[in-house]
Amino acid sequence: MGPQLIGNIVEKYEVIQKIGQGGMATVYRGRHMTLGREVAIKVLHPHLSASERNRLRFAREARAIEHLEHDNILRIFDYSGIEADYCYIVTEFVDGITLQALLDERTRIPSEVATAMGLKLAGALSYAHDLGIIHRDLKLENVMLRRDGALKLMDFGIARFLDEVNLTITGALVGSPAYMSPEQAMERVLDQRSDLFSLGTLLFHLVTGQLPFTGSNPSIVLRNVIEGKRPSVTELAPDVSPCLGDLIEQLMATAPEDRPQSAADVALRLDQCLADVGISVDDPKWALDRWLQAPTDYNEQLQNTLSTVLITGGKERLLQSDHLGALRMFNRLLSMDENHEEVLELIRAMHADLPKKASPKMRQAIGLGTLVLILSGGFLMWPQIGVDPVQKPSPPAVDMDADEAETSGLDAPPSVVATRNASSPRSTRPPPPPPPPLAAKKQSPPPEPESGLLTVTVPGSWGDIYIDGKLRGRTGTIGDISVSAGTHTLGIQNDHALPYTQSFTVAPGEAKSIAITDLQRKPVRFQLREAPNGNCIVKVDGIERGTIQSLQQILRVRSPEKTHRLVVQCPDGTTIHRALKPAVPGSLVSVSLNTP
Asked: What's the DSSP call for residue 107?
């Protein structure tokens, strides 16, 4: 569908402007001719609506979802008949932003905000699942956040229609590879638990700013989905709410039976995650629209609330001897403020009291919690007794039971053997004879771990290279990077680009080269100053973006290398024209709207 529809009448709807285009459809803004109601008209591309059979399928799917009436599901008003020239769906018009565009602007979403969004989505899925309808293509691009904070899940039924037309992921998408459940990737029969996996992926993406499953092509992405190859949510976001982090990991379990079994159960758990920190989605001060319009004030209030709740809750768990629960709360607080002296003192006290008071169960909990803290932020850096502060302490012995070492096929470390000999019951079998002395033969040093070489380039740009979260150098200034054989996470950071990550696998002795060609520029922020009125409407290249007030005077443009047309229309009839010239990605550019 091209621009020829603009200005025309489709059935009883006037087509006003084109507002979006994807692999399967073009979306227009329209108006009902008699009711005057603004609508969105999604028109499928001609190759999808060319045959009568496809039009019949489309009409059937539209009929199946037209009766969905839920606050968080996009309302369908109308759809094309089988005789129509085009296949289209008419829905409510949402004045807002997709979650993908929102994440592009804000990089990461706070845990409690993501939890509130997930709660609304889980409610929408629960409603649809009870009616026997599976979404099949839940992703950030299919969720819109309206300016008043209302969340709308879109495109129910579209993925099923495309699946029946036998399209592949290389044409119009039948689901998005990075969000597919393992069973969907393997083309198995789906049930509601597939949507729950995609919901977990969506929440993972929101709180970390990165997709869990990545790869250089869709096939690799799907293979990683099927095999469950991804980082944990806490690896990428140590400050994630423990409650939400646990739920995300369960939602993304490879086997459907290991996930929560209903969206209603997920909604209850998400609601509890908020209740644990004293937040209610019905409280205006925690409403999504407030975070959307005043994120700085909201985040400051959230941080203050969490600081109080986490320190209080951690102390309560210590009194209940729930040391692991306390450490999880302290860990999150330290990820927010690594110099929080009260928390550090509490953990030091736990650490100091461990040899005298701890039962084996307590010792295990504190040891595990301390390890979590060290790995996620390096916060436990106080001096250890008997260790020279100048020298690095020797690495700890592997904490592996001797029987585990035997069954794993590994040699038990000496410390384990010694422990077993000292504490295990004496065996009734005689010990094996000692090996013959090898004094005359020089032993070879232990072999080096097998590794490969990695070369990373960013054609036309540059980036700092992170492998498994560790900075290894900058493209153009570093050559081959030695990496151990196996699967790793590659991250690229550039001051002018959005963070990039993907998984890669290196075989022993392999020389691997990765060229990053899809680094996305950061949007330019144009600060609109001296506007005549906060209610002036802002348009960029003919597309309305909101009022000066709703934008908080900051206009984000995602194609910084181009010149854009800015038009500001005010209630008193004043119209202001400006050219937004190319600017450095990620920069803040001042634009005066003062009219002489």
From this structure: S
